[in-house]
Design goal:
single chain; 1 helix; flat
Length: 97
């Protein structure tokens, strides 16, 4: 009986918590986000800028492992830059963590 009572209380509490969930396309550190949902580009970006070309970064040193979590070997410099981030911030809003 106790188990059934606890299960019922948990079920009711999760239903009440579901009403408090807020979904949003953006999160602002202070106030409302500057850009609305579905914006095309940030105000400081030129969407007609020329695209293409090459960039070369120089690094000192050597590496023998592309796995940054490996216990052995030396990871490649700037290995974190090859992964995409799930979130990004813009330069228009105060985003100091």
């Amino acid at each position: 009986m106790r188990f059934i009572a606890i299960a019922m209380l948990l079920a009711l509490s999760t239903v009440s918590l579901a009403e408090d969930i807020i979904t949003s396309h953006a999160i602002a550190l202070r106030g409302e986000p500057k850009y609305k949902e579905g914006f095309k580009h940030w105000d400081y970006v030129n969407p007609n800028a020329p695209k293409g070309g090459y960039i070369t970064y120089g690094n000192k040193g050597t590496f023998d492992n592309f796995n940054r979590y490996a216990d052995r070997g030396t990871s490649a410099p700037s290995i974190l830059q090859i992964f995409d981030s799930l979130l990004t911030s813009n330069s228009d809003e105060d985003n100091v963590y």
